[in-house]
Amino acid sequence: MARLADYFVLVAFGPHPRGSGEGQGQILQRFPEKDWEDNPFPQGIELFCQPSGWQLCPERNPPTFFVAVLTDINSERHYCACLTFWEPVDPTQVSEVVCTEDATEREEDADEGGQAWLSPTAPANPGQLFAPKTLVLVSRLDHAEVFRNSLGLIYAIHVEGLNVCLENVIGNLLTCTVPLAGGSQRTISLGAGDRQVIQTPLVDSLPVSRCSVALLFRQLGITNVLSLFCAALTEHKVLFLSRSYQRLADACRGLLALLFPLRYSFTYVPILPAQLLEVLSTPTPFIIGVNAAFQAETQELLDVIVADLDGGTVTVPECVHIPSLPEPLQSQTHNVLSMVLDPELELADLAFPPPTTTASSLKMQDKELRAVFLRLFAQLLQGYRWCLHIVRIHPEPVIRFHKAAFLGQRGLVEDDFLMKVLEGMAFAGFVSERGVPYRPTDLFDELVAHEVARMRADENHPQRVLRHVQELAEQLYKNENPYPAVAMHKVQRPGEASHLRRTPRPFPRLDEGTIQWIVDQAAAKMQGAPPAVKAERKTTVPSGPPMTAILERCSGPHINSARRLEVVRNCISYVFEGKMLEAKKLLPAVLRALKGRAARRCLAQELHLHVQQNRAVLDHQQFDFVVRMMNCCLQDCTSLDEHGIAAALLPLVTAFCRKLSPGVTQFAYSCVQEHVVWSTPQFWEAMFYGDVQTHIRALYLEPSDDQVSPSQEVGEAQSQDDERSALDVASEQRRLWPTLSREKQQELVQKEESTVFSQAIHYANRMSYLLLPLDSSKSRLLRERAGLGDLESASNSLVTNSMAGSVAESYDTESGFEDAETCDVAGAVVRFINRFVDKVCTESGVTSDHLKGLHVMVPDIVQMHIETLEAVHRESKRLPPIQKPKLLRPRLLPGEECVLDGLRVYLLPDGREEGVGGSGGGPALLPAEGAVFLTTYRVIFTGMPTDPLVGEQVVVRSFPVATLTKEKRISVQTPVDQLLQDGLQLRSCTFQLLKMAFDEEVGSDSAELFRKQLHKLRYPPDIRGTFAFTLGTALTSGRPARAAKDKGPSLRALSRNLVKNAKKTIGRQYVTRKKYNPPGWEHRGQPSPEDQEDEISVSEELEPSTLTPSSALKPSDRMTMSSLVERACCRDYQRLGLGTLSSSLSRAKSEPFRISPVNRMYAICRSYPGLLIVPQSIQDNALQRVSRCYRQNRFPVVCWRSGRSKAVLLRSGGLHGKGVVGLFKAQNAPSPGQAQADSSSLEQEKYLQAVVSSMPRCADSSGRNTLSGFSSAHMGSHVPSPRARVTTLSNPMAASASRRTAPQGKWSSVRASGRSSGLGADVGSRLAGRDLLSTPQTNGAPPDPGFLRPQRAALYIIGDKAQLKGVRPDPLQQWELVPIEVFEARQVKASFKKLLKACVPGCPTVESSPASFLRSLEESEWLIQIHKLLQISVLVVELLDSGSSVLVSLEDGWDITTQVVSLVQLLSDPFYRTLEGFRLLVEKEWLSFGHRFSHRGAHTPAGQSSGFTPVFLQFLDCVHQVHLQFPMEFEFSQFYLKFLGYHHASRRFRTFLLDSDYERIELGLLYEEKGERKGQLACRSLWEYADRLSKKTPVFYNYTYAPEDTEVLRPYSNVSNLKVWDYYTEETLAEGPPYDWELAQGPPEPPEEERPDGGALQSRRRVVWPCYDSRPRVQPDAISRLLEELQRLETELGRPPERWKDTWDRVKAVQRLEGRPDGRGTPSSLLVSTVPHHRRSLGVYLQEGPVGSTLSLSLDSDQSSGSTTSSSRQAARRSTSTLYSQFQTAESENRSYEGTLYKKGAFMKPWKARWFVLDKTKHQLRYYDHRVDTECKGVIDLAEVEAVAPGTPTMGAPKTVDEKAFFDVKTTRRVYNFCAQDVPSAQQWVDRIQSCLSDA
User: CA 1888, CA 335: separation in Å to the nearest integer?
Assistant: First the structure.
């Protein structure tokens, strides 16, 4: 029995002592006045009676009632029932209050200017005020209804003036006792004619919730309550707000009821008084209720979850993450809750809903909701009893919970929610309270033990679940209301509105004596009675079914585990039977299988069997295998070891051993230490408790003789014992404990204590085994362990153990620190073990003496073990090392040197399939074991796959150092020994990735050195440190670095140097530094030029005396320009007919454009070439002013002219603020008097006007044809002939004019350099539709539809939208602005980064589906940028084709502008689609016009921060897209594009170094190496290298090349038409990237003789692995194969093999004959085309024409088999030398006429006899040194010949020859002087040449 109420208190309003506006509560009386001994009077009751503060009130409020909860220091809860009513205030009291207030307020006024305050609504007359008074009952029992009735009765007696003595009622209330529990009921009366019935719940442990849970759900809804539930369980702070105190109390009570069976053990205050609001900022979790009036004060709490009961919302702050329930429990719980709360939801959709069922009463619904949560806990915690460790049974049970095992068996290791719950205080309380094996049980124990199977069966049957919930709800309801048919309460209540009546008197002062006497009487009676003992029915708590391991949640490969387990067993049996070769074959499969949990368990069991059979002593090989398998098992163990693998292996690692020498044995533990699990305290604790439990169970199971009766078989007893779990044994012992004698009890306690103690000693040994390293200087994990040992934190995740911290420390054994280090290790281990011993022994109740003994023992154990290990270490070093594979040396390029020799590493698989035998087929080539080499040019890995089943394949992966974009340290497991090692991940912009783990023999200092050297090579301080410069130069070592101040010379200094050196070099412009003294770089002499078709050699004479000074430099002197003339730009300008230098110098007015040498000193624009094409009418001095209007001074210059429409393409930088924009904004042309007519914008307008007027059709507006084609296919409409093709040429010579090319001398390979980066353009949405280019008219007229207006602008300026805002169109419509959106370089960089990650992921993806690749590809937006570039380019092509000129003026003019103008020229001009033309295009637009290769490629430390931005690569990708759509239009192959993409970034050649011609000249790069080429030096120019390679092999040649001269390409640009370039995705592991041709000739294969099987010699078959071999090389296309075969046969016949190009040309010549009608196509004509004219792509767009089986490849002409001879001749004519000039031929078929002629060399050169060949087919005149020479020395293109005329002898001509034997051939470039042997042969030559010209 217990007291119903402990104290009755009367609290009234009193003035505040400090005189603040509010009053305060004062306790008027309390009964009893003395504290009870067992229950002292709680403090602070007066605060809780009026939580919002004590205030006077202007009117009488109705009485209120609520129950507050106070928690005392022993965490006992006291329930304070408060009934408050209001009484009129005594005027004197009020005035007293007001006086004190006034006094303090006056003081405050002086400070703050405040206002005196009485009460918010205080009337003038103080007589009207009412003060609160509260009756309080304090109790430890929660009977709120009884308290409400009792206090109500006392108030009713006072208000109604009933004739009942109040003292008696209160006395009876304080002496009333009620039963505690057990479902009894008691009727009480307080002596006022009242009657109440008190019921106690059946089971005390189940909470009583009444309706509170149902109300909580009604107020907040399901989702909100669930998140509050999770928040309370995971120890977050929860705050309830409401205007009602009763609601707050109910909500808190409801939330606590939901948490059952866990008890909330943090701060719990359902009603918090206003004065204590600062409690809310406490750091500990809480559940608190606060009046909604104080909501503002709760706003700034950052980590509190606020539930507003009145508004029905729950607010979770951003910084708080509430983990949700694990699925599927979350959704199941949600569904069941909605079924309980809204039963009609299920029926809402029925056609014939059943008659409405009555909803449960609120009380019943409350129990149903609780039942749902009770089931949820039973599902969450099912099987928890199987993870309890009973550590002690007597004198009190000590129980620990094995959290890791529980999570592992449930498969919920990753689950955030469960992890947090198990770590929480509530769960710790749950284990200590419910873990006890012998105690009273309740509903939850039954549920979790017996109903789990039923719950799992019911999962998918909602109705059965609901039935179960209702059954549980019945039990819960019965528990709260055991006697439903109870007699009703009978209690007097005050009348309606009684509080408004004027009460005659205030609440009376009660007589203390009377009440005290009643209390004392009752106490005396109680003393006589025997104490009420709560009879508890204790039983053994059921454990339920053992936890069935939930299916291994493994990914696909590990599911078929039976086969895998078989493999593991076989491998182990092979090892122990000594069949090592068999075991070795199986090992990789075993290591893969060990990823699965079942296989790891199987391994532990198998090894355990061998230990039991006494087979633990192994030989070296066996030992090695066993250790490797153990390491593999342990590598995936987390620090918690939730699957018990480490626990199972722990006894084995101390069992398996090998004999090293007599008396020295090495145990397996010394080889498996590097795993995080061994340094985790929780792991050791769980292991320790598990072992203690086993021993204590054994202690009580030992059968003593008297227990076994003779009749009983011992075996039976034993088997029964075996089945009993430790908890059962403990339960039995606890039941017997009270019956045992004192001595017996003492003896058991002692036995248990010594069991624990002996285990502690055992574990101190075990821990020293696994924590002390074999070689203390090597163990890296230990340093962390040492750190770990010093940390007090028990948590140690994998993150803490990452290697990041330990890279810097590398301990050197020879450094003399070894001893100190060892001591340090010993100290750390001793500290770690001591901390462990302290913790477990204190928890397990080991005596303090024993504990002290242990502390003394631990250092000795450690010391002893260290001494043992020293001997083992010494002996193990003497073992012969395991044979590691020999390091394979990589093949190096000539001039490439090794910087760091091979570091042994493992190459690990990254996200690509190639190396792991994915969909491409083939075995797993990665991981591979080998070495990484660092050379001056590359990072190279060579090695062999670790899987021996793969065979002897060599794996090579490499990339140029210059392409490294990211280097990241990683910590990974080595694939062989499964040790945690340092690693390095290197990513390259050539789409290679090296993910390497260093072998343990590689020290951290070597790895660090590798990183430093790599960094040094990647970012050389000076560009001359790059491989392209250091390669093959003798100056490498001796050259001092340039002075820092000299890095960027001033323009003045540069021009001064230019002039000086030009003077020295006989007027040849050659530029070097004056300030720079070392002779190796400064003085380069150049002898007088020889014949220009021959090589122009620059001697490397270093003596200044060889230089002949010239008097002065005249800018107009043609020789000054000769160097510049050689540049690609000039050759191209002449080909396009844009002017020659001579015409520019003589200012011939006939041509609209001229070549201006204004920038020859690079004074106007440093990033432009020295010679520029400008309108003829513009003076050079005006250009300086025009350039100021443009960014980087890049003013508009012409870069291409259409041969047909004569429209020109111009390029420039973006506009500055003033300039065109200002010019266009003025609608009238500015008159000279206007202020805004400043000179530069006027110049600019003049300049644009000059451009417009220089166009031939400028005046002819009527004859302009509209742009017919832009509504073509990529706009979506399919017109019958979507491509508008112009088939006739207005001028028969226009074709040849547009096709002119410079003679193909070798001098043309002019050097230049750089590297790429990114920008792109966003064509605005209006450019995507048909209204392309229609600019809004300012006069309000609607924009014109597309291009179809009759008169279009002569010039379109394509500019950045941002710059051209608000620009008005030109009134004369001569030019028009096209604003487009441009993306910036940084967007290209970001996009490329994502593309790189998509194509080379870095780590294997979780979902390796193609969808994930496509998703990441889409996110990169790379193809969208390609689409935009192509779209803009096609638009410009259309404009040019229709006769309008276009100026591309975007960004700074060197990124996007370059991409667009290059693409436009490629699409418009077939010449640029040849090998020679494409090279010229790149040299002209990218190199000469200053694309910043070094900056965009981050070549130097300065560019390091900006990163790699692949603008040039993006351009190549665009070309690749066009190539795919028009495969017959390009002379070069896709491989050529990849080759350029690779080498523009590789820094192998000097071509793509530096940012402009200016910088290249400054460094002496542009003209320096012409003389060196004859030597065997490695090529420095990429073009020269490509030329040489083309002669040897057709690798860059496209066999399907069959051009149409007039074809303007208009590719589709939609993303759906674009393909991912295989350059990004393909990889060949056999040889590394195939772009360094010398290296890509196949891997260094073992010689044939060494092959064990003789069969390899006879058979020429070989297996091709898609993931390994280079398919194009192993299976070349048919033509390449035939060419190779021809060469082989010729070699066998002993003839010198003919060049492949000659053979190919001959085949084509034969084919052309067969194509004619008289030659009749024979079956051998593989080269006939029936493709329609308008589209020549190969089968890409089948809808456009009959492209089917009739398609064959026309390789030279586009005629079909029925075409006429004339068209055939025309086609042959079109195949001019421009297309094949790269390939010199010497075959007889192409020699129309040949003989010896004397030829006069170029300026200052002598006459020489040469062998000349006239070639009609190629339309060229070639010459050789002598008749049998195969190397052509020069070519005169007959397309350029203007006249053949008689000549005259000049100085040095042959003396004996007749004058009439001389003749001259005049070309557009120069005049050639020839001399024949006699007059007839001269006549013959002239006739032949003339007939060739007339044939054309």
Answer: 98
**Which residue, among 177, 150, 193, has the nearest Cα to 8 in the 3D structure?**
150
Nearest to 1612 by CA among 1423, 1429, 1421, 1430: 1430
- pLDDT tens per residue, range 552-574: 333 334 445 788 888 899 999 99
Tell me the sheet residues that pair with 80. 68, 138
Query: What is the rounded CA–CA span in Å between residue 1246 and residue 1186?
Result: 9
pLDDT at 1527: 92
What pLDDT digit, counting tens, does each position of 1077-1088 carry?
Answer: 333 333 333 333
Full 3-state SS string of 1374-1431? CEEEEEEEEECHHHHHHHHHHHHHHHCCCCCCCCCCHHHHHHHHHHHCHHHHHHHHHH
Residues 6+ apart with CB under 8 A from 913: 919, 920, 1408, 1667
What does the DSSP 8-state code read for residue 1486? Answer: I
Please tell me the distance from the alpha carbon of residue 722 to that of residue 699, in angstroms, as a whole number.
Answer: 13
> What type of residue is 1021?
P
Q: CA 439 to CA 451: how far, in whole Å?
A: 20
- Beta strands 1355-1360 and 1445-1449 are parallel
Paired with 964 in beta bridges are 988
Task: For residues 287 and 305, give the distance between their C-alpha atoms in angstroms, rounded to a whole number.
Answer: 10
All residues at 6 or more sequence positions from 1778 whose CB lies less than 8 Å from its CB, including other chains: 1299, 1301, 1471, 1474, 1476, 1477, 1837, 1839
| Residue-wise burial string across 1302-1339, b where 16 or more C-beta atoms lie within 10 A, e elsewhere | bbbbbbbbbbbbbbbbbbbbbbeebbeeeebbbbeeee
Q: Would you say 1510 and 1392 are in contact if contact means Cβ atoms under 8 Å apart?
A: yes
- Report the DSSP beta bridge partners of residue 1462: none
Are the beta carbons of 1449 and 1214 closer than 8 angstroms?
yes
The conformation of residue 1484, written as its DSSP 8-state character, comes to I
Whether residue 1004 contacts residue 810, with contact meaning beta carbons closer than 8 Å, is answered with yes
Q: Which residue has the tokens 């190779």?
A: 1684
Q: What average pLDDT does this structure show over 1872-1877?
A: 89
Cα–Cα nearest to 1867, from 1886, 1840, 1844: 1840
Look up residue 700 and give its two tokens. 């009580």
| Alpha carbons within 13 A on the beta-carbon side of 259 | 28
Q: For residue 655, which of 617, 694, 603, 600 has the smallest C-alpha distance?
A: 617
- Beta-bridged to residue 66, according to DSSP, are 82
> Do 48 and 248 meet the contact criterion of CB atoms below 8 Å apart?
no
Tell the residue number behind the tokens 């987390």, with chain if given.
638
Tokens linked to 279: 């409690």
Q: How do beta strands 955-960 and 938-945 pair? A: antiparallel
CB-CB neighbours of 43 under 10 Å: 9
- Please work out, in degrees rounded to the nearest 5, the angle formed at the alpha carbon of residue 1489 by the alpha carbons of 1488 and 1494: 80
Cis bond upstream, residue 859 (ω within 30): no
Q: 1808 to each of 373, 1098, 1290, 1570, 1812, how far by Cα in Å?
A: 106, 21, 43, 22, 12
Answer yes or no: are the C-beta atoms of 1130 and 1141 closer than 8 Å: yes
pLDDT tens for 621-672 read 889 889 988 888 888 777 777 778 888 888 998 999 988 888 889 898 888 8
Transcribe 1078-1104 into DSSP letters: -HHHH----PPP--TTS---------G
Whole-angstrom distance, CA of residue 1445 vs CA of residue 1378 = 13
In contact, 1756 and 1779? CB cutoff 8 Å: no
pLDDT of residue 1565: 74
More confident residue, 1065 or 450: 450
Instruction: Give the total residue count for the chain.
Output: 1896
The Cα 18–Cα 24 span in angstroms is 10
pLDDT of residue 11: 94
Give me the mean pLDDT over the 763-783 stretch. 74
Buried b (16+ CB within 10 A) or exposed e, 1398-1408: bbbbbeeeeeb
pTM, entire model? 0.57
